[in-house]
Amino acid sequence: MPPQASLSQVGKMACRCTACHLYKRGTQTVFGEGAAPAPLMLVGEQPGNEEDLKGHPFVGPAGKVLDKALAMAGLQRSDVFMTNAVKHFKWEPRGKTRLHKKPNSKEVQACHPWLEAEVERVNPRLIIALGATAGTAVLGRVPRIGAERGKIQKGKWFEAAVLVTWHPSVILRSRTHEEREQRLKELSVDIQLALRHSRKLKPSSSPKRETPR
Fold first, then answer.
1. Could you say which of 109, 129, 147, 179 is the most buried, measured as most Cβ atoms within 10 Å of its Cβ?
2. Does residue 90 lie within any of the structural domains?
3. How distant is the alpha carbon of residue 30 from its chain centre?
4. What is the DSSP letter of 55?
5. What Rg do the C-alpha atoms of the chain give, in angstroms?
6. In sequence order, which residues have a C-beta less than 8 Å from that of residue 46 and are 6 or more positions away?
7. What pLDDT digit, counting tens, does each position of 197-210 carry?
């Protein structure tokens, strides 16, 4: 990764990535978008079906939930940088439908240099990891979302502080309206906490040079 490459240039490089097999089935690479530099960086798992087709992160149903949570926290997309731990949509066919399939550790590791390049250039004060896959990509271990959500932590790979919370897709899968509303509120509160904490920190995103295994 040329150190002088801009975020836009890195995104174009990512479009040619063949580090894992996911590029063969994904429509396109879905690189991060938003403010750069930005105090907050939101990291999800991977693009979904709509993101894969449109080429932009968080534009499907989960993205609409995230937009609502951001608005409840007094933010909008232009205030943050959004990306995913994995840049290609991993799916399996079910009739005419492409169903989401969870990326494995090797696929997350293959995409880690792109996430590292984004962090270097966005220079966030705090990274919000949405869900377990994103948490693993940032913390260097599998987080327990229920027990760890809403806590400010230090990750293994980056200098920026980390907060783990619900992925918006979990809110969509809630069994009841009450559960859905509660988790949406928790996601919004976590984003507000991250914003307040980020204002106390100095920008620092120099990645730790240890390579994920």
1. 129
2. yes
3. 11
4. T
5. 16
6. 84, 85, 86, 87, 88, 89, 90, 100, 103, 133
7. 998 876 654 554 44
Q: Kindly report the CATH number assigned to the domain that includes residue 13.
A: 3.40.470.10
Rounded to whole angstroms, how far apart are CA atoms 101 and 63?
A: 18
pTM above 0.85, yes or no: yes
Asked if 126 and 160 touch (Cβ cutoff 8 Å), the reply is yes
Strands (E), 36-96: 40-44, 81-84, 91-94
Q: Residue 82: give the domain boundaries.
A: 8-198
Cα–Cα separations (whole angstroms), residue 81 to 13, 102, 116, 127, 129: 19, 23, 14, 10, 12
Chain position carrying tokens 């949406």: 184
- Tokens found for residue 103: 């990326």
CB-based contact 85:78 (threshold 8 Å):
no
Q: Helix, strand or coil for residue 127?
A: strand
Residue 188 lies in a domain: yes
Residue with tokens 């040619």: 16
Identify whether 207 is part of a domain. no
The reply to whether 211 falls in a domain is no
Kindly give the parts of the chain with pLDDT less than 50. 205, 208-213
Structural domains counted in the chain? 1
